[in-house]
Prior knowledge:
6-stranded parallel β-sheet; binds manganese (II) ion; alpha/beta; binds guanosine-5'-monophosphate
Amino acid sequence: MEELYKKAWDKIINAENILLVAHINPDGDALGSELSLYPILKKLNKKVTVFNATKPLPQYLDFLPNFNKITDKLPKNIDLTIAFDCGSFDRLGIEEKGEFLINIDHHISNTNYGDINIVKPDYASTSQVVYEMLKTNNVEILKDTAICLYSALVTDTGSFQYESVNEKVFLTAAELVKAGAEPANVAKMLFQRDKLSRLRLLAKAYDTIELCCDGKVAFVEVTKEMLEMSGAVKEDSDSIVNSIRAIVTVEVACMLREEDDGIKISLRSKNYADVSKIAIKYGGGGHIRAAGATIKDEFDLEKVKNMLKKDIKAII
Length: 316
Ligand code: 5GP
Ligand code: MN
């Protein structure tokens, strides 16, 4: 792996026009990881584009340094693309792979679509992989980089709660704090800027919670109507599935969300069920304890719920 980090950095050093890209509907790890390299590459005098196809971007991440540099426009010349936190090429929101692509990720379902693939499924976040790449190549971690990588680590570990959290994660976090990330400030930015519209959405969604399989499975629905009535936006519902998993009896939690092109499913498990298998079955992917997919051209929530009940019963 050390050699891969060196090979990747060598490619970066020798590139002129670099495109940084992360998965559509980005989370903290996606944007934090892609933005982390921006100040470092600028310092190296590279032409850098930080791309994300999603519009609008999640507002709760707008404190990340250089957030305002993210664009949904692709430049003409790209000699190197670096993809972050994205398990499959189709979720990057770009048409072509380009001349050379470095794929940096931690999804177990990653399809190795890059020319260099640095994929570490046992890592808590993509940012942890980015950190290791920088460290291996003796690259100085700038303060803005540290803030991005630390925020990504916090969001992807559920504030250091998940099974992926180990000694190495805390050592990485400590190094990032040493490099200038301020934990209390990041926590305030991430968790103390909630909106009333989001809480109103939660209230509506919680009303639809359905438990089955002796309380081991929980479903929750988010409809377009709920979003409209509460004034919330799509990503405001992202964490709902985590709260449902927190119910004492629940092993598998599932959120179904109405979207323009179908039904988005988010799956979470607590102790033993591998939900990535179900997501992959529906053309999605993810991790063992957190996975998702969009069931395209399907708009019947009850039908999808019944399908998923069968799939989930088979793994619990
Ligand atoms: P969420 O349920 O929060 O959207 O996603 C949980 C995990 O599954 C994330 O790591 C996310 O990247 C991954 N994931 C969600 N939807 C998809 C999808 O449609 N395709 C793939 N490959 N991964 C997904
Ligand atoms: Mn991630």
